[in-house]
Design a protein that fits this description.
Blueprint (H helix, E strand, L loop, with lengths): L1 E5 L8 H14 L4 E5 L5 H5 L27 E3 L2 E4 L4 H6 L10 H8 L6 E5 L6 H9 L2 E6 L3 H20 L6 E6 L7 H14 L12 H6 L6 H4 L4 H25 L18 H6 L1
Parallel strand pairs: 1-5, 1-6, 2-4, 2-5, 6-7
Antiparallel strand pairs: 3-4
Helix pairs in contact: 1-10, 4-5
The structure holds adenosine-5'-diphosphate and magnesium ion (MG).
The site of magnesium ion has 4 residues, from helix 1.
Length: 283
């Protein structure tokens, strides 16, 4: 099962829009996808009109060892499933202050037998115990980045956080990818920051970009995705192409990682064996 976090420490860079539309695009290609809303503010949950319901059956239950992850209120939306966020996450955050509290979600995913090909986390704009839980449970990170100053700074900080998580907490975190979002080709600043990211991070910046599109902003009103409204709209085509490229990238990374040495049986690998990002990028 592929586990992917959508993450950027800056808000408004298109994380939630990306989580929804990547999941919808995956669903259309037959990839069984579960989206877990780990943002306590629950924008994804609300955007998709998913009922929060009893907190014991929301994402909050992943932080409670007495709850069986199988009993979670998984809800089906446009071609994929969602585990909703919960208001109770904000209150619960104060109690989640032990170093081991970053392991809850990974352990819940290991315990549960979820019949999905891919699990995708939407995260909040800050480094919290929840976004760390997502990164600790993931093998891949997608960093949506608006090509403007603050979002690029946030994206680079996020990249560094993922390296730290790989070093200290999760050697299975194999890849990060940048996705440029809300791109306006007429803006010089957008071209400048795009070029900056492509030169610095080379092939881990997806070739496909998400352009600004009213279809993406509009489709959020109705509780469904742009694919339901107009699959030929610019936003739908951009997310379909980017998702296709992302999936091929993930498959390449997984194939490269599995062939020579699958690592110890228990799934934990020696951090020394994990290629550094530079090596991974040049290989
Ligand atoms: N490609 C796009 N074109 C136009 N508006 C977009 C696009 N992507 C996102 N938006 C809008 O930008 C705002 C922030 O996006 P969102 O996905 O909520 O970001 P984040 O989750 O990173 O805070 C939302 O109002 C959303 O509708
Ligand atoms: Mg969001």
């Amino acid at each position: 099962m592929i586990v992917l976090s959508v993450c950027n420490h800056k808000g408004g860079t298109g994380k939630t829009t990306t989580a929804i539309h990547v999941a919808a695009a995956l669903g259309l290609t037959g990839v069984r996808t579960l989206v877990i809303d780990l943002d306590p503010q629950g924008f994804l949950t609300r955007t998709l009109d998913v009922e929060e319901g009893n907190p014991d059956r929301t994402v909050a239950a992943l932080f409670d060892p007495s709850v069986d992850p199988q009993s979670l209120a998984v809800q089906h939306v446009s071609g994929f499933d969602v585990i909703p966020s919960s208001n109770s996450l904000t209150k619960r955050m104060r109690e989640l202050n032990k170093p081991t509290d970053v392991l809850w979600v990974r352990e819940a995913l290991q315990r549960a037998e979820l019949g999905y090909d891919l699990v995708l986390f939407d995260t909040a704009a800050a480094v919290t115990v929840y976004s760390l839980n997502a990164l600790v449970a993931s093998q891949h990170v997608l960093i949506p980045v608006l090509p403007e100053y603050q979002a690029v700074v946030g994206a680079e900080q996020t990249y560094q956080t993922t390296e730290l998580v790989e070093d200290k907490l999760n050697p299975m975190l194999q890849s990060r990818t940048f996705l440029l979002t809300q791109v306006d080709g007429r803006k010089r600043i957008h071209r400048t920051y795009q070029q900056y990211l492509r030169e610095k991070y080379t092939e881990i910046v997806l070739d496909n970009v998400i352009r600004t599109s009213t279809s993406l902003a509009e489709s959020r009103e109705g509780g469904t995705t742009v694919f339901d409204h107009d699959s030929s709209a610019r936003g739908a085509r951009d997310y379909a192409n980017a998702t296709d490229e992302l999936l091929r990238h993930i498959q390449r990374v997984e194939a490269a990682d599995l062939s020579p040495d699958p690592g110890p049986e228990d799934g934990s690998i020696d951090p020394e064996d994990v290629p550094l990002p530079d090596e991974a990028m040049n290989s």
